[in-house]
């Protein structure tokens, strides 16, 4: 059976980066995405394919990026969506 292909969003730091590194260490294929590929250098050096992707873009743009990612290996077996942001404020100020 071929090694799994992972697509991991928010891979520039935190859980996304750690999951990507662990998958690569296990010999899996990883497509790591983040808004800026300049922050994915360590993963690229470790063997990941890297792509730019901002998950806040339109659905049509997201579909194009996913198609580009899928074309690398012809499939995506595992999706990890760890992209996100932090909103820090008092409850009364958060919107």
Strand segment count:
4
Low-confidence stretches: none
Strand arrangement across the biggest beta sheet: 3-2-1-4
**Main β sheet profile:** 4 strands, parallel
**N to C succession of SSEs:** EHEHEHE
Distance between the termini: 47 Å
Question: Can you describe what's shown?
Answer:
The chain has 95 residues and is α/β, with parallel strands linked by helices. The radius of gyration is 14 Å and the shape is globular. 34% of the residues lie in helices and 20% in strands. The chain has three helices and four strands; from the N terminus they run βαβαβαβ. α1 (14-25) links the parallel β1 and β2. It has helices at 14-25, 41-45, 59-73, and strands at 5-9, 29-34, 49-52, 78-81.
Q: What is this entry, summarized?
A:
The protein is an alpha/beta fold. The chain has helices at 14-25, 41-45, 59-73, and strands spanning 5-9, 29-34, 49-52, 78-81.
Q: Layout of helices and strands, plus pairs?
A:
Blueprint: E1 5-9, H1 14-25, E2 29-34, H2 41-45, E3 49-52, H3 59-73, E4 78-81
Parallel strand pairs: 1-2, 1-4, 2-3
Task: Output the keywords.
single chain; 95 residues; alpha/beta; 4-stranded parallel β-sheet; 3 helices
